[in-house]
Amino acid sequence: MKKTMWICVSGFCLFFFLFSTVYYFSYRNLELKKELELSRQQARGTSEEQEETESSAESKTEESVVAAENQNVLSVNDDMLYISQNYNETDGLLTETILPIPEEYMGLTREGLIEYLKTEGNGKSLVSFSSSRLVIRTRESVNPDHYRFLLAIEEGYLKIYYSDRSDVYMETYLTEEELPDSEVEVLKKGYYVKDVAELYDYLESITS
Fold first, then answer.
1. Residue 120 region, left (φ>0) first, then alpha (ψ -120 to 50), else beta?
2. Are strands 125-129 and 191-193 parallel, antiparallel or unpaired?
3. Can you give the pLDDT at residue 108?
């Protein structure tokens, strides 16, 4: 009787031990799987955040580069002095007139303006394109009757005539040496302007 009871107790203890062992290792294995999955999710999230950060940084860098490039690209604007040159191929006379910048030129870059001038005809070409001056030359004859004044260098001084040279409008007493080299050759050939406002704008541009 006692032997049978001992066998039963021993069997129960062995069964309980085996059951506890299997349950422990099963529970432990499940916990390890959960920890591994959590680690993978965290690693995946970190990788995505890094990619988003890198992508955002690259995007900002590209935007900064584009903005810097756009800022450095010069385009036609109201701050430029627009000078329209007219070249008479018959007698070689080159005259210039200060005019308002045509609306169709506004906002065009140097390359864009060159392409646009090709469509306008009259043999127009770009002579000077800077932040302060825009000079465009047209190959056609100039009718002095369309202008009021003619500026010319004579005897080393800049003189202002009426366009028909009938009389001197103003003695400027500006010597050739005081004028910009880029304007001297033009003024020696004669430079027409339409009215008093354009006259003083031009004088200011060459003496400032």
1. alpha
2. unpaired
3. 93
**CB 94, CB 86: distance < 8 Å:** yes
Query: Measuring CA to CA, which residue among 152, 157, 155 is closest to residue 202?
Result: 152
Exposure on the CB side of residue 76, measured as CA atoms within 13 A: 24
For residue 109, the 8-state DSSP code is B
Relative to beta strand 149-154, strand 157-162 is antiparallel
Q: Which pair of structure tokens corresponds to residue 99?
A: 């005019």
Rounded Cα distance, 41 and 144, in Å? 84
More confident residue, 9 or 165: 165
Distance CA 23, CA 28 (A): 8
- Distance linking the first and last C-alpha atoms of the chain: 129
Backbone Cα Rg of the chain: 43
Contact present, 152 and 195 (Cβ < 8 Å):
no
Burial-class residue 25 by CB neighbours within 10 Å (0-12, 13-18, 19+). Answer: exposed
Please give the model's pTM, rounded to 2 decimal places: 0.38
Tokens, residue 147: 């202008």
Residue 97, phi-psi category: left (phi > 0), alpha (psi -120 to 50), beta (remainder): beta
Closest CA to 96 of 63, 133, 59: 133
> How confident is the model over 122-171, as pLDDT tens digits?
678 888 899 999 999 887 655 677 788 989 998 889 999 998 888 899 88
Residue 188, pLDDT score: 84
Bridge partners, 41 (sequence order): none
